[in-house]
Known about the structure:
By secondary structure, the protein is mainly alpha-helical. The chain has helices at 10-14, 17-32, 37-63, 68-78, 87-94, 98-110, 132-152, 158-184, and strands at residues 84-85, 114-118, 126-130. The chain has a three-stranded antiparallel sheet. A hairpin with a 7-residue loop joins strand 2 (114-118) and strand 3. Helix 2 (17-32) crosses helix 3 and helix 5 (87-94) crosses helix 6. The radius of gyration is 20 Å and the shape is globular. The protein starts with 9 loop residues before the first helix and ends in a 21-residue tail after the last helix.
Amino acid sequence: MSVEKSGLESSQVVGSEEDAADLGNLVAAYVAAGADESVQRVITAVHRLSRRLNQWYDQKLADLSVSGGEWTVLNEIARADGHWLTPTQLAEAAHVAPSSMTHRLDRMVERDLVHRTPDRDKRNRILVALTPAGWQLYETAIREANLVEADLMRGLTARQVDDLAYLLEELLAGLAAAGSTRRRAGRPTPAATAPQQGVTETDQA
């Protein structure tokens, strides 16, 4: 399945000139309210890009007849050591009740996306792994997403892409360090400062 045939094409992820103008208006509004312009230019752009990419990912999963919850299962197993997890581990990763995960896995077994087998070392434990069809679906989704993600960076040089990756990784590391410091100090970690709320990944059934 080609990216061009999806409901949301790569050009729509980036947005139009009108969208860029709207972004500028948002930044101006936040600055007028007392925010720092340079900070808001970065945070607002990252938030908008994340939201647009999530819209495209949701559409692509729908095109592949995969729910967000099912994708969580595929993704968690694909990157796990040994490429298998227990239903309990999957429920914890997806932030759902074990009973909900059981129903989800039942549906995925019926679709031949995953299979469940008893653990040879612990007979009372069940292991979940991807079937060949599950791996194929996972790889198809990753390849098509990579096409769009690479297309987004066409206008950047290789050095700019590396610099951008480094800077974003530094921001994430700083955010994690700040959260850890607040927890050690006994202060609750606040949600993303309004109105710049981070995009949350909903885990659909």
